[in-house]
């Protein structure tokens, strides 16, 4: 984890699981931006891709990956593997794999997508921007922040050059750039970037959910800067917006609930923090694979809270489960299903927390 600037409860983890904008738009997709084509009239690969996007947006990442695999098989058979359409489907599949904690598969898909897009004639700026942003997010989630930063910077520069500095696309890439600067500890610059991104999104009429994700990340920054009261108020507003616009078990709610719990812990409101953690954990258990590292994050956070409350038996049980997940294939630094790789950045902290209970 990046160094923190406030006295946050020891071992609580949030920033690595901030939410960014993954690009789900497919280059050349006839259904994108059109309301005249029925799904039945679309090619097989495109119908599967539309289903993959819908499942992703609903928070059903396993189903999204299944549809995206079918879409990729069909688009390769129909149009060929080195087309912008194939690149878009690969990016969709990689986004679903990343959400499922399968980092190795996500890396392979995102990198292949970017290679294809760079090689095709006249690639769309939106697709290049999306591919760059997605690779940045992949490395950010693996705590490789210095490796992630150049991708976010290039994505934002590409977006501004293609669409202009005030376009909604540029507002989104600025929000992602704010997030990586936030994690790197460049807090003043990150705060300016968040404020600019939100202002531009307001002008462009961005969806409430899009703005809510940026505000939630900004709230974490406020907490890092010591203003837990403002962070708490912002997160409560975000949660109300998300509850009004998302299903009750949508994974985005778990991000906000975990953030609220971390802030409540910082305010010494441990019982309330546990209520938030329990709800976030229930959502993640219902929507994510059982060995997903995001489950371990909440379990580790809960363990720290129980330890602060003097309940060592409950703390021990949650540290043990968190450590088991992070030692599994899905919890490794390179992600689930891909085998080996670097150790998950939170593993040592949880092992130390467990030893401290003895």
UniProtKB/TrEMBL annotation:
Keywords: Repeat, TPR repeat. Signal peptide: none annotated. It comes from the Bacteria. Pfam families: TPR_10, TPR_12. InterPro entries: TPR-like_helical_dom_sf, TPR_rpt. The keyword Transferase does not apply. TPR repeats lie at residues 129-162. SUPFAM superfamilies: TPR-like (SSF48452). This is Tetratricopeptide repeat protein. It comes from Luteimonas yindakuii.
């Amino acid at each position: 984890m990046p160094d923190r600037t406030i006295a946050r409860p020891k071992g609580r983890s949030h920033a690595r699981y901030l939410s960014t904008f993954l690009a789900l738009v497919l280059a050349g997709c006839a259904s994108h931006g059109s309301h005249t084509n029925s799904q039945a009239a679309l090619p097989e690969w495109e119908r599967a891709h539309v289903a993959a996007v819908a499942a992703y947006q609903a928070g059903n990442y396993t189903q999204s990956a299944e549809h995206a695999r079918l879409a990729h098989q069909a688009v390769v058979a129909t149009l060929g593997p080195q087309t912008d359409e194939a690149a878009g489907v690969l990016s969709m599949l990689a986004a679903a794999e990343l959400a499922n904690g399968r980092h190795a598969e996500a890396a392979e898909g995102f990198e292949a997508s970017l290679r294809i897009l760079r090689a095709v004639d006249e690639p769309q700026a939106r697709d290049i921007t999306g591919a760059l942003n997605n690779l940045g997010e992949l490395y950010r989630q693996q705590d490789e922040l210095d490796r992630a930063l150049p991708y976010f910077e290039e994505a934002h520069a590409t977006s501004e050059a293609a669409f202009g500095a005030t376009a909604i696309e540029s507002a989104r890439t600025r929000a992602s750039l704010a997030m990586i600067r936030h994690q790197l500890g460049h807090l003043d610059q990150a705060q300016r970037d968040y404020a600019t991104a939100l202002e531009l999104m307001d002008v462009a009429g961005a969806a409430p959910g899009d703005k809510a994700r940026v505000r939630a990340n900004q709230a974490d920054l406020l907490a890092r800067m010591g203003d837990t009261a403002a962070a708490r108020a912002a997160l409560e507003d975000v949660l109300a917006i998300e509850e009004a616009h998302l299903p009750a078990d949508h994974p985005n709610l778990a991000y906000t609930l975990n953030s609220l719990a971390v802030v409540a812990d910082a305010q010494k409101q441990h019982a309330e923090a546990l209520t938030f953690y329990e709800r976030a954990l229930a959502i993640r258990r219902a929507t994510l694979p059982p060995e997903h590292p995001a489950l371990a994050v909440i379990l580790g956070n809960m363990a720290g809270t129980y330890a602060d409350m003097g309940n060592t038996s409950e703390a021990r049980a949650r540290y043990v489960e968190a450590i088991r997940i992070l030692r599994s294939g899905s919890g490794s630094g390179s992600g689930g299903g891909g085998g080996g790789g670097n150790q998950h950045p939170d593993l040592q902290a949880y092992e130390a927390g467990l030893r401290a209970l003895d």
